[in-house]
Amino acid sequence: MSNSYPNMLAPLDLGFTQLKNRVLMGSMHTGLEEEKGGFDKLAAFYAERARGGVGLIVTGGIAPNFRGRLSPHACQLSFPWQVGKHKRVTDAVHQAGGKICMQILHAGRYGYHPFCVSASPVKSPISPFKPKALSQGGIKRTIKDYARCARLAQKAGYDGVELMGSEGYLLNQFLCRRTNERQDQYGGALENRARFPLEMVRAVREAVGPDFIIIFRLSMLDLVDGGNDWEEVVQLAKWLEEAGVTIINTGIGWHEARIPTIATSVPRAAFSFITERLRSEVKVPLVATNRINTPDVAESILASGQADMVSMARPLLADSHFVAKAANNEAEDINVCIACNQGCLDHTFSLKRATCLVNPFACYETELKLDAAPQPKRVAVVGAGPAGMATACYAAERGHRVTLFEKDEQLGGQFNLAAQIPGKEEFKETLAYFAQRLKRMGVTVSLGQPADPELLKSYDEVILATGVVPRVPNLEGVDHAKVVTYQQVLRGEVEVGKRVALMGAGGIGFDMGEFLSEAHESATLHPNTWLAQWGIDPEYQSNGGLIERDSTAFESAREITLLQRKTTKPGKGLGKTTGWIHRTVLKDRGVTMLSGVEYLKVDDQGLHIRHDGSEKCLEVDTVVLCTGQESNRSLGEMLAEMGKPFHYVGGADVAAELDAKRAIRQAAEIAAAL
Q: Which residues form the FAD/NAD(P)-binding domain (predicted)?
């Protein structure tokens, strides 16, 4: 047992049962819940996390009735015949030495179907369906549905349930004036708004008896107008304690809040202050949550008394053995969650199975495997960006003898550039993980070594992860001294003037916009600056915890114009759950965004364009090419001429928007097939 994390690894006595440590795996919807045969895959997914040492797992949200479903085909537990498939999950987790609670989630007005209900008929800004107000009879029936769902969960072998009362779902909708406009005993004063959730908690406790964990996920910071104030949050927590909850978990922000709460630009443990504030008010254990992604962060929260437990969802997607590695003094071997949302939340909100950018095996435990190779081979991997490093590690894991060639003097490729973007500092963690893994797996790493066909001909297998080169458009004056590529900027090879035009408004264009407009050190590294920038009040003087945003965050280091040829809204192709954040930051900083642009030429005067039917010149000092990239295939062409077989992986295979998620997954698939 590690002495480095004594608080994180300390057991937690709940009276009738004991948790082996202070790590709670937070609820995440994986999409397996609705797939054919998905519960067997789900059992493997959760059992793997139980084997990895997590103290208590909470499942993705399961609806207590039809109207509570998130989507028409979402998972529901209301009938005895549904118990069997859940039992597969609980049996697998218990056999692996873990404990698991089922989250009961009623979507309320977030239900993506015409049968949704809420406290009042107030439509959500993120769903097309206007909810019906629950009648008093409907409330009573819903309470019974919750109690029945909890009893069935108990029958299925779960150790407890989590009642979802945050993020803007049904219980939250009753608790806040924003969505509760009722005139009856379930609306108005807080005791009335809290009546339904509290009656429901008491009904659940009565249904399951005293020796069953009930977690309530309480919205401690709504981050929306019409949210609760601090005194109301404290009162709710006290009432919940009286009503019989075992643990109170922290909820931060509604889904419709225009404030980032879990994206990579959010500082680590940015919201633990709110859990700490509540801790002196109640006796039940409290769980801190959001952007806790390393054992050191978890330990410091627990050691300083901010919480009794820490919740991590995506970090256990990224590394199922997070806790075991910390306990074995192998924290440097943890595959750290970089909070990119690309494989998890972006997938969930697109109704695709969740997975993880840095761990393609997540949610594919039964399908994507690295079995021992029947015949170890000599494998050469060329290029040490994410695709090359991942391929080398996975191939070595199967027992192959792997050499990784990299022409530069450092590992990382384009990820080194990405990690320089303000708010993307976490990307360095992935590079550190793979560098450590290469050592552990005994991969021979040859830096400063450009590979040629002669060098590669003796290998049994050759994988080319040679990456991409920036695409240079066919434009008059593109060789002018003003014109530079995004790679040259991020490598510090060129001076960038005060007035800048960015050609291309995809992910790279937005990254460059943030990089070049940042007037201060990244707020992600300064939590108080970041809270002020987004208008979050740590003093909690007003409802929802909101204050006026700090206008100094809107200063721009440069005058920037972001241009694209497409006529669609700039940034339309950015991540589903994070794109709005990047658009907001650039808009705040006064970046001009133009669509439907025709580029004419670059000269001493600047960048000449045609826009809205007229020609104009943007008098800029620097034009940065963010016009996409092309696969770097020169080595592949030489090998093909020689007749030497090889595989492409990552950007060398497909040069579309730099996609580390696809590259790392492809690395796993190629390595599994070698």
A: 378-638
pLDDT value of residue 657: 63
Tell me the whole-structure pTM to 2 decimals: 0.96
Last residue of a domain, one of 301, 331, 348: 348
Q: Is residue 265 part of a domain?
A: yes
At what angle are helices 195-208 and 136-155 packed, to 10 degrees? 30
Structure tokens at 532: 């002020």
How far is 606 from 586, CA to CA, in rounded Å? 22
Q: Are 55 and 95 in contact (CB under 8 A)?
A: no
How far, in Å, CA of 592 to CA of 221, rounded?
Answer: 33
Rounded to the nearest angstrom, the gap between the alpha carbon of residue 465 and the centroid of all alpha carbons in its chain is: 26
**For residue 104, what are its two tokens?**
């009961």
Q: What pLDDT, on the 0 to 100 scale, is given for residue 1? A: 55
Cα angle, residue 242 at apex, residues 156 and 246 outer, rounded to 5°: 35
Ramachandran category for residue 209: left, alpha or beta (phi over 0 → left; psi -120 to 50 → alpha):
left
The catalytic site residues sit at 169
For residues 444 and 484, membership in a common domain is answered with: no
Same domain for 271 and 399, yes or no, is: no
Q: What are phi and psi of 501, to 5 degrees?
A: -110, 130
Task: Judge whether 548 lies within some domain.
Answer: no
Q: Which two tokens stand for residue 93?
A: 């987790």
Could you report the average pLDDT of every consecutive run of 10 residues in the chain (674 residues)?
87 98 97 94 98 98 97 96 98 98 98 97 96 98 98 98 98 98 98 98 98 98 98 98 98 96 96 98 98 98 98 98 97 97 92 95 96 96 97 98 97 92 95 97 96 94 94 95 96 96 95 95 94 95 94 92 95 90 95 97 97 96 95 94 94 83 96 95
- The DSSP output letter for 623 is E
CB 226 within 8 A of CB 165: no
542, part of any domain:
no
Q: Of 332, 348, 364, which residue is a domain's last? A: 348
Cα separation of 534 and 549, whole Å?
Answer: 6
Distance, CA of 486 to CA of 594 (rounded, Å): 19
Q: What is the CATH number of the domain that holds 325?
A: 3.20.20.70
The Cα 431–Cα 650 span in angstroms is: 16
Q: Do 422 and 463 reside in the same domain of the chain?
A: yes
Total domain count for the chain?
A: 3
CATH classification of the domain holding 665: 3.40.50.720
Cβ proximity of 504 and 626 under 8 Å: yes
Specify the residue for token string 């097309």: 128
Shared domain check, 507 and 417: no
Same domain, 40 and 70: yes
CB 54 within 8 A of CB 86: no
Calculate helix-pair angle for 230-243, 272-279, nearest 10 degrees: 60
Q: Which residues constitute the domain of residue 61?
A: 12-348
Residue 219 and residue 101 in one domain: yes
Residue 372 main-chain phi, psi, to 5 deg: -60, 135
DSSP state of 176: S
3-state helix, strand, coil in the chain (%, to 5): 35, 20, 45
Alpha-carbon distances, residue 327 vs 57, 289, 430 (angstroms): 18, 21, 21
Do 407 and 327 share a domain, yes or no?
Answer: no
Give the helix ranges, DSSP H, for 222-287: 230-243, 272-279
Give the Cα separation of 353 and 226 in Å (integer). 34
Q: Which helix (H) or strand (E) holds 380?
A: strand 378-382
| 254, HSE (Cβ side, Cα atoms, 13 Å) | 30
Q: Are residues 331 and 389 in the same domain?
A: no
